[in-house]
Structures are given as C-alpha cells and as structure tokens.
Amino acid sequence: MTMAPDPPRSLPRFPRDFVWGVSTSAAQIEGAVAEDGRGRSAWDAFAAEPGRIKDGSDPRVATDHYHRYREDVALLRELGVGAYRFSVAWPRVMPDGSGAVNAAGLDFYDRLVDELLAAGIAPVPTLFHWDTPQALEEGGGWLVRETADRFAAYAEVVAGRLGDRVARWITLNEPAELTLLGYGLGQHAPGRQLLFEALPAAHHQLLGHGLAVQALRAQRAGNIGIANSHGPTWPASPAEADTAAADLYDLLLNRLFAEPVLLGRYPDEVAGLLPGPVAEDLRIISEPLDWYGINYYQPTLVGAPAAEGSGPTAFGGIQLPPELPFAPREIEGYPRTDFGWPVVPEALTELLVSFRERYGDRLPPVVITENGCAYEGTGDTERITFLDGHLRALHAAMEAGVEVRGYFVWSLLDNFEWAEGYARRFGLVHVDYATLERTPKASYHWLRDALREQARG
Ligand code: IFM
C-alpha cells in the first residue's frame, strides 16, 4: 500500500482560468447499444467475436450512462470540475455512418449538453473515440479515404445541433492507438493485423480530422483541438541498434501524428508510404488548431528486437509479433499500476518540454486531455499519489515555459477498458457492474478538495 501524499493544499497554484475536467468515451460508458435507433459499431462487432475481450465481456451495458447521465452529471458537479470531455457515438447519430441522421441519437447528446450547462459544466465533445460505424468498417473503415469525408459530414451534423451550446470541440481521440492496435496488431477493433500496411488508417484519420475542423468552423463552431496520445521514448541503451529502434517508436507514436497537424508535413521516413494526394491533404490536416490535446500515461523504453526466432513478446498486456523492428521493454525502478504501466510523473514534464522544443511556436496552447491510472478499490491512495505527482509535473512544465490551459483526468467512472473488458478500473468513481451503483473513491474526494483549494485562489 502506498502512502497518501500531502493534502491538496500543498499542490502548486494553477492559473485562475485553468480548465479542470474529467474524460470519458461513449463506447466505454453509454451501453444502450441497440436503443433508440443506434447503429452497430466496430467495437460491438469485435466484442461479439469469441476471445477478443479478455474477460469475455462486451460494451452492451457498460455503466449504463445512457440512462444514468443525470446521476453522472450530479457527480461531476459535486466534484467541482469546470469541464467534461465525453464522446459522441457516431453510430448513434448516423447508424450507417453516412446518410440518414438518427434524431433520437442526437437528442441524447442534446439532453446531456443541457444537463451539463445547467450544472455549470462546459461540455467538451470528442467527435470520434474509436466507435466506427460497423457499416463503414465493413467497407474498409479508416483504410479507405471515403471514411474521412463521411466523418466530416457527421461532424457537420453534430455541430449543427450542439454548436449553439458547445464552446470547445475535439475531433479525434488517439488515432495512433486505433492505427497501431486496431489495424496494425489486431488487438483492438477492427482486429486487422496489417503491421505497416495499416499506415493509410493513420492518414485517413488525420485527413478526417482536418476536414472535420473545416466542417466545424463552417458551422461557426470554434475552439477546436485533437486528443493525441504521446509519451517520451527512451532507448534501452546507448547502442545504435537500441537508439534506432527507439527513434522508430518515437516516430510512430509521436511524430507521425503531431507533425502533419502542427507542421503540415510527415516525417521523411514515412512520407512516401501514405496514400492519395498527400501534399494537398496535408494542407487540410494542418488547419491551425486553437489548442493541442495530449493524452499522457507513461514513457516507453524501447530496444532493438530480440534475436530472430524468439517468438512474440508481451508488452502491457499486448502480444507483439517478432517481426516488428523495435521491442518495448519493462521500465524498472518505478511503481506500477494494475495495468503494469510504470508511474513516471516527471516524464510528463519531459514530454511537454520536448514538444515545446521540437515545435516551438507551431505548438498551440496544450490541454492534457487524458491522464490517469488503473487501480482496484475505493480507498485508492495510489491514484491520489499518481494525480498529485502528475499535477506537480504538469506545473513544472508550465514553469519551464510550456503553455498548458487545462487538465482532464481519465476517467470519471470505472468503465469498459476495450480489450481488457471491465478488469481495469480507471475511475474516480467506482461502478458495481452487478447493480451499476456508483461510489466515489478516495481519489474523487481528494480531487474535489484540491479543486476547491485551487478555486480559493
Ligand atoms: O481507456 C482508454 C481511453 O479510451 C483512451 N486512452 C487511454 C485510456 C486508458 O487505456
């Protein structure tokens, strides 16, 4: 058991207008997958395949947020956050991914937005958090260019309905993970194992992002960002084979998704591998953003792959095929979450400072759109230690000159953690999956007190 850190009073002071929030996503909390005209998502289809989800579960009920959103907004209000990041389920709004709009689906988000505003909480919708409509997935999903156009058309519909009340938007969540885990390694929906042939999925998501930015702005919706996952990559040793492998991993996780958006170009190493009129697309992808969202969880230690014939390696619960030209290694000397992820708050400072150094003035103000950890139990002192450490690390980056405007904890509730099922608990609020009862954890009370203290100024 970890010792609880100092009380929140001792946290450094953040700016008065700093945005404090928590994050969730539709597929992970809503449930009600077949209600009110919602279409099927790629995750519904994937979870229905035997053996895909480790605990044999699926997202059909999840936390039943679709029916309990009022209770969840009350929890947010009591927590004292100023903003709530949720995602809109594309198949709830457009059951087939294009064409007919499902009015009942849009109505749900309309009610949620009104409930949030009545509680004094700013709604921050993410337009896409991995739940591709299955009808589009069957046509190739993000491997095909048309999906980007369809995403933009859907973005326009959502902005048309919610834009009068939503003051901050996110296009995509973590296109890196969907590319790598969903299309590259097959550990997430849609379960494709294309390795480097998955790169078109990255390009089409980024194109969809740029087109959605344009569609939102055409609807007069502003204050737009993306939520990209990033983390420092550390070479396993100074040997050239290890530094080259770490550079490649850094390219795939960080540069491949940051550079097109921030600099309007792909890293040279992949430039020739992407489909379509890439130069033209990059002008769309690099539409200037109002802010840049970073999801941070952990650094990664990377070395050269093990000797030939050594078989697949397991990393963070994921089986990696031996033909990958890099091999993540366990980081020693740090505490670990229940997921096995190392807890390294100072790597958040390192990441933010390195982004500022890499991208200079091309980096707009940053918002941490996700940060959190998986631990069991409601007396979760480890989560308090995690949050305390990461908030100090964030503050250190701000003191070093990085402009950071907000911080969102992942997650409000325990929820459906993708291929892990319900076994990993990231919530500030415990969910009993038998009764769906919500119980705020020690970390929820800690954060509430910390936010009150910040508000006292
Ligand atoms: O649960 C996920 C979320 O959907 C995306 N970012 C990482 C979280 C924890 O794995």
Automatic annotation (TrEMBL):
Keyword RNA-binding tagged: no
UniProt keywords, alphabetically: Carbohydrate metabolism, Cellulose degradation, Glycosidase, Hydrolase, Polysaccharide degradation
Classification via SUPFAM superfamilies: (Trans)glycosidases
InterPro entries for the chain: GH, Glyco_hydro_1, Glyco_hydro_1_beta-glucosidase
Record carries keyword Hydrolase: yes
Known catalytic reactions: Hydrolysis of terminal, non-reducing beta-D-glucosyl residues with release of beta-D-glucose
Top-rank taxon, per record: Bacteria
EC numbers on record: 3.2.1.21
Catalytic class of the enzyme: hydrolase
Protein family (similarity comment): Belongs to the glycosyl hydrolase 1 family.
Protein name: Beta-glucosidase
Lineage, highest ranks first: Bacteria, Bacillati, Actinomycetota, Actinomycetes, Kitasatosporales
